[in-house]
Amino acid sequence: MCGRFTLTSAPAILRQAFEYAEQPNFPPRYNIAPTQPVAVVTSEPGARHFQLMRWGFIPAWVKDPKTFSLVINARSETVLEKPAFRNAIRRRRCLVPADGYYEWQSKGGRKQPFFIHPRDGAPMGLAAVAETWVGPNGEELDTVAIVTTAARQEMAHLHARVPVVIAPRDYACWLDGGEVATEQAIALLQPPASGSLAWRPVSTEVNRVANDHEGLLERIELFSEVVKPEASLRPSRRAADERQGSLF
C-alpha cells in the first residue's frame, strides 16, 4: 500500500516533468498523509492541469462521507470491478506527483519505516483515480486514491503492495479517457521495474503526521532483527529551493 509519501522537488521541476499549464508555488513536503490536500495532475483535451485534492477517495454515490471508510488506495487487480472505482478508472484517471514514499516492515514486534524512492532521483507519477463528491447542499470535494499492485520479489520483504509508477512516456495514455484508452491504461498497472527503486531505513519520527521536515529522510542504523535492505543511492536534498512558497 502507500500511506505516506513525499513531494520535495522544486515547483519548476515538477511543472516541466508533468507539463501542466498552471504555475503553482509550494513548499517541500516530507510526510504527506491521508486526508490532507495533495498535488494531482489531470488532463482534458489539449492540456494538463495541476490541482489539489483530498487524499481519501469518496465515490459520487456516497450520501454521507462520515459513514464511508477512508479509502486512500485502489487495488489494480479489482479497480475495474469495484463499484467505488468503476467510473473513476474509466473517466478520471490522474497522476499524483511524488519523490518517494514510506513503508513499514514488521519484524520482531517492531515496525521499522523505510523511505523508498527512484534511484535516478527523478519525480514519480503515481497512478491514481479521482472523484468529485457533491454534497446535499451543493458543496463539492475533489478526492483521490493512489493505485497499488503486488510488489516484485525484491520489494516484497518490505510490503506485499507497492504504488503503481507510470513512466513519463505513458503519462498521456494513463491520463486519456475513453473505453479503448482504459484498456491500454489498465495494462500499465504494473509494479516498478526491477532495480528502479532504492530504499533506506529512517526514524520512527515519520510515524507522527505533525513531523514534516527534511530530517525524516536521513538514514538510521537498523535494529539487528530487521532485515537490512539495499543501500540508497539518492543524494541529499539539503539544498531545498528557497523560492518555494506556501500552497498546502
What features would you highlight for this structure?
248 residues; mainly beta; 5 helices; 13 strands; globular; disordered C terminus
Describe the 3D structure.
The protein is mainly beta and 248 residues long. 12% of the residues lie in helices and 33% in strands. The chain contains five helices and 13 strands. It has helices spanning 11-18, 86-91, 153-156, 171-175, 179-186, and strands spanning 5-7, 29-32, 37-44, 47-55, 73-75, 93-98, 100-107, 110-118, 124-134, 140-150, 161-163, 165-166, 197-201. The strands form two sheets. Strands 3, 4, 5, 6, 9, 10, 11 and 12 form an eight-stranded mixed sheet that branches. Strands 2-1-7-8-13 form a five-stranded antiparallel sheet, with no helix packed on it. The chain is globular and about 50 Å long.
In short:
With 248 residues, the chain is mainly beta. It is 12% helix and 33% strand. Strands 3, 4, 5, 6, 9, 10, 11 and 12 form an 8-stranded mixed sheet that branches. The chain has a 5-stranded antiparallel sheet with strand order 2-1-7-8-13, with no helix packed on it.
